[in-house]
Amino acid sequence: MRNKVTVGITIGFVVGILFSAGAIVLAGTLDPAGGPTASTSQMYTLQQLYEQLTTGSTGEKMETFTEPEAGPGTGTMVTLDEIMAAAPSVQTNAATQDEVVSGSVVWGLSEADWGLIEGTRPYLSVSKTGQATCYATTGDYDPCVCGSTEWCPEGQDGDWQRGLEPIPPASRFTDNGDGTVTDNMTGLIWLQNAHCAGPNNETYPGMNWFDALANVARLNATGRMRGTDGALRGCGDTSNGGSHQTDWRLPNVRELLSLVDYSRYAPCLPDDHPFDNVWPRWYWSSTTHSQALFWTEAWFVSMHGGRVQHIGKNAVWGADEIDEFKLYVWPVRGGQE
Which run of H or of E encompasses 11? Predict the structure, then answer.
């Protein structure tokens, strides 16, 4: 009997405090001071609560009150059991890695809060190079089993394979069907034609850094670039409502390197990539060498093996004028802020 009396006194004490505290205003109370149309009595319906949990759709709180003409019928709204079933106690629909690195918006429970959760790439993560092989230190330096002998030492990139797992090409790249490709790993949008200026002929050299910058400006103005043979060529970009975009730029050196897969060569891009006309040659970046002695030089990246070098901005063939040093331009736009 004591327990029942104690519980009754406790409940009565709590309720009494809530109703006697004039300074306390309970939003959604059934007996608001201003009546059923007061702002403090406006509340969400059970149907809205259910839709919030299942679809993320949130309607407005009721602003008017209408006395029902009859009692509720079957199927007029969701039940409390249905609402409970829509509210899992654990987050079973967590974002996958692909959703995380691409910044997808997912729906679920996170840190005890319901809501739209913005996918976020792991803080300061570095992607794997793609290399999964070790190489011997003598002879023909052939591939070997990492750490198997003193001639195949541990600690190589192919041994550790540290970094964020690359997204498979099928989901990493999106062919936008308009002459552009989105890299879902970085958010960058690339021109699908990696050598629009051309010509695709070994007898013609590449272009210098200044011509590369001018060609990107020409692409923004006209949708075309000029090759070293003097011809103007359309680049196939129709992503701006059937026309070309006007914010293309020369990529910086790290943006170019973000495409490189060191498990491949000629070109060193992920297998099954959706780009066209990728030449295993050097591509200009917009990045200038920071040392005063080399301010006249800019960095460029090899799409043959992923090598990075710097060279004079006026260079066309390179310092030793060999075929491998032809310099091309591959425009990019957008990207993460």
Answer: helix 2-20
Residue 227 burial class via C-beta count within 10 angstroms: exposed 0-12, middle 13-18, buried 19 and up: buried
Pairing type for strands 327-328 and 282-288 reads: parallel
- The first and second tokens of residue 98, run together, are 């692909």
* Total length of the chain: 337
User: 277's torsion region: left (phi>0), alpha (psi -120 to 50) or beta?
Assistant: left
Q: Which amino acid is it at 55? A: T
Instruction: Say if residues 157 and 144 touch (Cβ distance below 8 Å).
Output: no
Amino acid at 58: T
Q: What is the pTM of this model?
A: 0.60
Instruction: Count the neighbouring beta carbons within 10 Å of the beta carbon of residue 327.
Output: 23
Tell me the C-alpha distance between 319 and 221, whole Å. 32
- Tell me the domain boundaries of the chain: 2-65+73-85, 169-334
pLDDT in tens, 300-314: 999 999 999 998 888
